[in-house]
Every structure is written in structure tokens, then in C-alpha cells.
């Protein structure tokens, strides 16, 4: 096919004799340097005629033979996967395709015919070959892409498998050989490229009290005291139940004796032992592991170490992540020759060495690590990481994310802690304000990712998140209340469930551990609506000691305009319909805040307390109203589009109705208590004013006292025609289609349930501001636990 450059003329060479009739005509060298999609398009627009008839394939399925016409596609048709399988013993490239497919679906080639491929029966799978640009390589090179297609569904592509070229000259970001045991020399070079920079927290030598490390050379625990500093790696792994070999008061002195960890009675879990071996083989000396470097029965020092997790993981030169396995006994695949792991399949075709790409992370073997609460902050705080999974090793650093079957780039150290053009945020920058989103958005994202994790002990909920809070505390300039930022408490209060939530209870006593108003008080994933329109506070907090009212604006120290009490004249990014505004200190436009905040607490606020010591009761003044509700399926929009994430059906939804029986809002309830199907009135507290729908925000801020609402109250009853909604229309279409008299037309509301004079949060939602005022709200004191 001379007019198609991705084909070549076959020959009688030995190389061609080891290929099938289809593969020997493929010009692999050309494909590795050209965009096949673009080539097909250029031929299409230039009017080049094809010199062959449409391809057909006959398929015997469900008792009959059916002829299918292969549609024109920007790819090289390889044929049925079953035919490729039958040729894999005689064709080198067919063998590579079958090996790569088997590796992707975690089986061996001989068993491939007996399984469904992504729920598709094996005989119905058709394969084609395309190209994909290697965007990180310095030259214009391409990987090969095997596309798996379902024949009866018009050859719809349901999966891709990548094959790349191996290079022996170590060209950055191009293919590298992988063996049964990892290449320690390559790992050593990768780790040691990351020399300490001025921005590395560990360079100061300030270590927490009682800081211990494992000395892999002397096989013992060492105590790092005072300003002593040293290079060390950290381990992030899953305990998977009690560890019998731990550091305790009884054995701490013995474990600090050289050779103690090499003795026959030292039953070190395999994951820790493999981590020690890895550190030793790459030429490093020290390793931090929680079970051995924290004295587990010393409650005081244990708390000191837990509170210093941000310092420990951020200061580590690299964190080793045991991604594979569900316990500390799973080991690190590839550290020892005896550990089975992913296989690289290599063939040489027409002088080109090809291999299947590693498929790192989402689907290989039992992996509890991504689901665990403690490991979230270990990942978020680490500057650089090496992930050990059964399907290979992955590196994560300032240079980006790459795998061991790709030649690692040379690391260029940066001094500002920020990534370069193709880099990756590390060392706490995953949870620190930088770039285009505000600090509160970083916090909201961190809470969202963490809230869905699992913990063995529910009492660890805030302890396992303390490192993240430590990183953010300095930027927020205020403390946290049960995991909620006190400087943005009114904005954070309307957090939302996205799955069914349950109260977080003490495993031993069954008591509620944290207040209902905090996300920490509930088990299950949540989101904070801080990526939407601005939320303007409508509550005043009450001092826990003397009942004085104060606002978060006063607590932040905001005075005249954008000036704070410490004399800083903040600047504001323009209010945008698609995102809330951001504020920044002069000269620091990349660090955005939701509101200006003074670094010191204002003098007038220094004695204000939102909570009494050891009390979860948060008291505020707010307008509350009783509003009729019925079971419903309304949608609280995230970022104002219907395609964004909304709660799943496990979350109880109720629709709010005004006194004329018209739709006026939606609320989600956390537990089972509000899943009844009967209509009932519920008390709602208005927390903040905001906007919903794509056309209803204003460019200007709303009035501070809601005076614009009061002028419309008398005409509310007469506007029935405008407010009426069909049963088929949901909240999303209602807010997107309706033209409101008011901008910023809704309140964020909390659903309250009272017990013995104390309110508990049971749900969250929004209510049309006019309907809320028509319900004759009253301003009242709300003590919430």
C-alpha cells in the first residue's frame, strides 16, 4: 500500500518470517515518529483516494456467522483478538499484544480466552493500532496504542493499551528495561539527584522531641537530638491490624543497641524489612517508620510525634509508599528476587525494540493504602515519593510523575518549592495556598479527599489530619475548631454530604466524638461549596464566656475596606461569575485568600472564644424559620453545572415548599433520621447568602443587611405564576431558567434538630431568600453541638 506511509513492503528476511501477514506490513519505525490521527485527517482533506475496498470481518456469535464491515478509522486494523491470540506463538508482535492485554487484565496469556475483557466476551473484541504523542519527551516521538473495540457496538473503543520503544541511551522519558528485581542503581541515582535546597524544611535540623530513626547500617534505632540533622527516607504503609513487633518503653533501650534489628528474635514485618533493605541498597542510611520510631505506649511523646507529622514527612528526602497489600506483611514487590511482580514483555521488530508500558496504580492487587486515613496526609505532605505496587514502581516529584519503565530525567533543584513547567506540587504544596485557587479551596479539597478515607480507630479522625492542619494553620493565621477554620467558619459550615453519612462514634463507648457542625463529626465523603459563587455570612457568633456577639469579619481583623488591623492594604481579584473573588497581600498575588485576614488576632478579639475548653458547643445568632418539606430529588449544584458531582441516591433529599405549596429549595440530610416519606416542617437556620444557577450571580456584592429582600415581601404572594414549577423540572433547570428579581437569591441553610435545648445539625441545603422571609423567620440564639 504505497500511498499509506504506515505500511511497508514485506520481505523474505528472517525478521519478517517471524511476523504474521498483517504485522510484517506495518511500518513501526514510521508510527513511532508520526501522528497517525493527523496523517489520516490530512489525507481526508486532501482528497487522497483509498486504493482498497472496505475491510470485513466474519464473526461466529450466538449460533450464526455475521459479516461486519470495519469502519474507516484513524488506526491500523489488526484483527480479532482471538485471531491475534492464535498467531501469538508464531508472530512476535501478536505475542506482545496478547502479553500486554493479559498484563492489563491481571491474568496470563494462556487464560486470556477464558475471561471477559472489561465485561466484553473475548470473541467480540477487535484490535486496532494507533499512536499517542509522548508529550514529555524532548523529541517528537509517539507510543503505540492498542485500541480494544466491541464489534457489535460499531467497533466502539472501550480500552487502550500502550506499547513504547525501549532506548538504551537513557533518553529522558523514553522506554527503559525492567527486571524481576528493581534496578537499585537507577533508584539510587533518582533519589540522590534530589539534594537539599534552601526550601527543604529538613535543612534546618529542627527535629521534634524524641525523634528516632532506623539506622539500616547498624541495624538499630537511633535518637536524633537537638539541632542534629541527617538525610532520611520515610515509609508510608498500611498496618492491617496490630503489629506485634513495635517500639515500646520496655524494649526501646534494647532496640537502640547496634545489631538489635538483625537478631533472630526481631520479627520485623516484611514491608518494614523490605524498606530497610531498599534504603541500604541505594546507599542511604536512615529510615523513619512510625511503629519503630515512635514509642507506642508513651502517650505524651506519641502525641508529640503525631503533631509533628507534617515536619517528619516534609523533611524526608523521599517517602517510600507500600501501595500493594493490605497489611505490614505484604512487602515491597521487586526489592527481593522472590517477590512476584509485573512483567515487561520485550520484542524486536524490524530493528525496533518494543515493550508494553507499565499500568501503574489503579487496578493491581489488593491496595488498602489509597483508602486509609493516615496515609492521606503522608502522601500530601511528602516532597517526593516512590510507590511500590505489584505492577511496578512509580516516582512522584517536582519533575512530575513517571514509572520505572521510563528513563528518569535529571532533576533540576528549585529553591522556591514550586514546580517547573511540567512539574508536580510536593512537600505540603498540595495543601498550601499557591497558584490560582485560594487557601480555603485547598482546605476544602483536602477535607473532601480525606473525609472518604477509612480509619481503624475513629478517635484518630483529627489526629490523622493534624499534619495537614499544621501546614495550613500559619497561612490561615487562626486556629481550627474541630477541623474547621475559625477565620472562615461561616463559609465552611454549609459543607455537604455526597454519600450517606453516619455520626462518628467512639469505638469503646459509643459516644459521639465530634460536634455535628464539623465534618469530623460524620463518617463519609463530603464537599465544601467554596468553588461556587461567593457565600456572604449572615450569622454572628457568641462568645462562649461572656455572650458578646462578634462576626468572622471582626475575628479576621478586617477594618476599613480591604485594610486589616495589622495595617496591610489587601488587593482583590475581580469578582467573577465563574469563581468567587480572591484577596492577596501586596506583592504576593499567587497566594489567594477568601477574605483578608490580619496575621495577629486583633486586640479587640484576643479574649474572644468560640468554644469553652473541652466543649463542642458552638453558639451563634441567626434567623431561623420552619419550612415545609417533602421527600425529593433536588440537586445542589457544585460549580453551577449539572455535570458536576452531586450526592448519590444514598443521601436523603427533601424539597422545600413555601406556604403556597411552591418549590423554594432543596436540602440533603446526613443520616437515616430524615429518610421518612411523610411531609413535615423542619427548622432551618440561614447561614450565608449566595447564588445558584448559571445566570443568577451579580457582579457586585449583595447588601450587607438584606434590605433588598424586605422591599419585595409584600408582593411575594402575587408572583405565583413566575414561581410555579412543573413536577418534571429539577432544582438545576429551575435556577438556570428562571429570571429572578433578586440577585444572590438564596440562603445556605442548616437543618436543625433540638435536644434538651441544644441544636444538632442534621442536614444542609438552600432556600429562596424571599420564601425564607415570607416564612416569618426569627433571630435567635443557636447553641449547636
Automatic annotation (TrEMBL):
Matches recorded under InterPro entries: HET
Pfam families xrefs: HET
Domain Heterokaryon incompatibility: 232-378
Protein name as catalogued: HET-domain-containing protein
Species of origin: Lophium mytilinum
